[in-house]
Specification:
This protein is an alpha+beta fold. Helix content is 29%, strand content 26%. It is built from twelve helices and 22 strands. The chain has helices at residues 4-14, 35-44, 60-63, 66-79, 240-243, 248-258, 269-272, 279-297, 365-381, 388-392, 397-403, 418-437, and strands at 24-25, 28-29, 52-58, 85-87, 101-105, 109-113, 131-135, 141-146, 153-162, 168-173, 177-182, 189-201, 203-208, 214-221, 228-234, 262-266, 302-305, 326-327, 345-347, 353-355, 362-363, 384-386. Strands 1-2-22-17-16-3-15 form a seven-stranded mixed β-sheet, with helices on both faces. Strands 4, 6, 7, 9, 12 and 14 form a six-stranded antiparallel β-sheet that branches. Strand 19 (345-347) and strand 20 (353-355) form a beta hairpin. Helix 4 packs across helix 12. Residues 1-19 and 332-356 have low confidence and may be disordered.
Length: 440
């Protein structure tokens, strides 16, 4: 009987509740919940004390850093640079982008992940970054180098799985100054260790001492100088349900070490493009993960991004949820006629085979369901919500963003080019500023 209160609490986190009335100013709902963050930003601008740390967790929009990188630049130009923040250790996949810093890695590491080719069970313990690196030889190494003065650092944090046989790592700052972190512990458990320096550094090299050590994340910061840190940790192609595979004990340890002031949750596109979308299961996942992050972070304020406007030509996604897809382009008239048997058929990037003339653009019906659920859950659970689609210009906006003379989105109608990332960051910050400035 003593477990009944816990069961009730867990059930309450999953069961949909009646939507509360959210106060929206433009694309931002319940923006006043972020007032404490803006107060911290005002203090950080004076260049003293700890930096304001924003931790964004998401999919490829976060991993690619086109939007987060531009938002980081904007915030740091306004409030000052507080460091590069949290990253997945090493180089967890080909094409991994790390704006502002360069990450390198030797041979001798095995990669674990919450999603993708390295997500096969049994997985190593995983944290907020969604990737872990396991040393499989004693000289396995990785390095992180600042690309400019704004990403130089005087505080380095390394998170790993400690244990009786974990051993330690040797650190080398700027190729000269040497230090060591020992992750030996009586029992297996996550451990985050910080190394503070009296001087600024531009590079850190990490070398494992013995095989078997698992690294879950690393980070660089600038101490006591105020400013902003915007950490982007994302897994390409992932959904929120994949983030649920990360381990609570690792996330809790990392939250303590990295002390975010704001957590941004940026999923939804891949859910909306899934072949079959289960609205009930998705809402349960969203509610449980919001509650989980709140619990593991000690109640850090949260900002949820609604899924951005995205389109496809993949006819297989027209029925991925009940309802009709949103048509954003008329089909060429001749596509209604039967194709001759020898017609040239080419596969479209990321889509099913289609005639040489492109199939019409549309938004899968599941994508609208995802946004409705995100907005409702955010209102119910006291999370600030930003309507990314509305900020872009509303339904079918992606068509214009791709087809304009200087495209802001890639030809897949999903991902953003660098100029598009800058424009999204500008609109996001303008929307937040307007919401906080509006009389309550």
């Amino acid at each position: 009987m003593k477990h009944i209160p816990l069961m009730i609490a867990a059930f309450a986190a999953l069961v949909p509740m009646p939507a509360l009335a959210a106060r929206c100013v433009g694309p931002v709902c319940d923006g006043e919940r972020l007032a404490p963050i803006f107060s911290k930003l005002a203090a950080a601008r004076r260049g003293q004390g700890p930096a304001v740390h924003i931790l964004q967790i998401g999919d490829s929009h976060t991993a690619g850093d086109a939007v987060t990188g531009a938002w980081r630049d904007l915030l740091q130009a306004r409030y000052g640079a507080g460091g590069r923040g949290v990253l997945a250790p090493g180089r967890p996949y080909d094409g991994y982008l790390t704006r502002g810093v360069t990450a390198t890695m030797s041979a001798g590491w095995t990669i674990g992940a919450t999603f993708g080719k390295n997500a096969t069970a049994p997985r190593p313990m995983l944290g907020v970054a969604g990737f872990s690196m396991i040393a499989n030889r004693p000289d396995a190494s990785m390095a992180l180098r600042a690309d400019n003065s704004a990403t130089m650092f005087d505080r380095f944090v390394l998170c790993a799985i400690g244990g009786p046989n974990a051993g330690g790592v040797t650190l080398r700052f700027d190729g000269a100054e040497t230090s060591r972190i020992d992750f030996t512990a009586p029992e297996m458990r996550p451990m985050c260790r910080s190394v503070d320096s009296a001087t600024m550094h531009g590079a850190i090299d990490v070398t494992a001492e013995i095989p078997g050590l698992t690294l879950t994340s690393w980070a660089t910061f600038r101490s006591g100088r105020g400013g902003v840190v915007l950490s982007n940790v994302g897994v390409v192609g992932s959904q929120l349900v994949h983030f649920a595979r990360a381990d609570d004990v690792v996330i809790a340890e990392e939250m303590t070490a990295y002390a975010p002031d704001l957590i941004v949750l940026a999923f939804g596109t891949n859910e909306g493009f899934s072949p079959r979308f289960d609205a009930v299961a998705y809402e349960a996942t969203l509610r449980s993960q919001v509650a989980r992050l709140r619990r593991l972070s000690g109640g850090v304020p949260m900002l949820m991004f609604g899924a951005p406007d995205s389109l496809t030509r993949n006819a297989a996604l027209r029925g991925n949820a009940p309802g009709l897809p949103l048509e954003c382009e008329a089909a060429p008239a001749f596509l209604a006629a039967p194709l001759p048997s020898d017609a040239m058929v080419q596969p479209l990037p990321g889509d099913v085979a289609a005639p040489a003339a492109k199939a019409p653009l549309f938004a899968p019906p599941a994508l609208a369901d995802v946004r409705r659920i995100q907005r409702r859950v955010a209102a119910d659970m006291g999370v600030t919500f930003w309507d990314w689609q509305a900020s872009m210009g509303g339904p079918c906006a992606a068509r214009d963003w791709v087809q304009r003379a200087e495209p802001l989105m890639r030809g897949d109608y999903v991902h953003f080019k660098t100029p598009g990332g800058r424009e999204i960051a500008r609109r996001l910050q303008a929307d937040l500023d307007a919401a906080l400035a509006s009389p309550r």
